[in-house]
């Protein structure tokens, strides 16, 4: 019986090892899914979806807003929107910890009242639910600035 128990124990150990090795590398790939990190938002959303020759580059500043990496954070957080209707309703472009008071979220999800403009990005594919979630998570977590690595 001791030999049989040793074989069973070895077999169980082997299966556990194989099972654990099978888990290595599983889960979301880096940059996939809603991380809520500002650097990821800039790289995965603002730079490819919002900056163009006619939109939110440092040269064009549609709506008075540049979303380039060097300017976007300071241009968004705790800033009153240029849109008069949104400003009158008390929105900020990004209101830390308050998604419902963040005009940026309304602009990207299309939840706009009369006079608040058009859904963004204009003339481009709308942001995916994961992209919108990234921005919402960042705001809910205090809209922290990019880390100084």
Offer a concise description of the structure.
The protein has 149 residues and is mainly alpha-helical. Helices cover 43% and strands 0% of the residues. It has helices spanning 2-23, 38-50, 72-76, 84-88, 103-109, 129-140.
Shape: globular
Strand/helix succession: HHHHHH
How far the N terminus sits from the C terminus, by CA atoms, comes to 59 Å
Structural class: mainly alpha
Textual characterization of the structure:
With 149 residues, this protein is mainly α. The protein has one domain. It has six helices and no strands. Helix 2 packs across helix 6 (129-140). The radius of gyration is 23 Å and the shape is globular. Residues 3-33 have low confidence and may be disordered.
List the helices and strands and how they pair.
Layout: H1 2-23, H2 38-50, H3 72-76, H4 84-88, H5 103-109, H6 129-140
Helix pairs in contact: 2-6
């Amino acid at each position: 019986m001791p030999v049989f128990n040793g074989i069973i124990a070895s077999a169980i150990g082997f299966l556990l090892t194989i099972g654990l090795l099978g888990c290595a590398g599983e889960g979301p790939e880096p940059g996939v899914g809603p991380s809520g990190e500002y650097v990821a938002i800039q790289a995965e959303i603002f730079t490819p979806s919002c900056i163009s020759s006619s939109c939110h580059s440092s040269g064009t500043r549609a709506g008075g807003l540049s979303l380039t990496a060097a300017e976007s954070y300071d241009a968004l957080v705790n800033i009153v929107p240029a849109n008069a209707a949104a400003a009158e309703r008390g929105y900020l472009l990004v209101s830390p910890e308050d998604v419902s008071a963040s005009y940026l979220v309304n602009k990207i999800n299309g939840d706009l009242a009369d006079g608040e403009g058009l859904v963004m990005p204009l003339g481009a594919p709308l942001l995916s639910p994961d992209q919108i979630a990234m921005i919402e998570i960042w705001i809910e977590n205090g809209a922290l600035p990019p880390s100084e690595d």
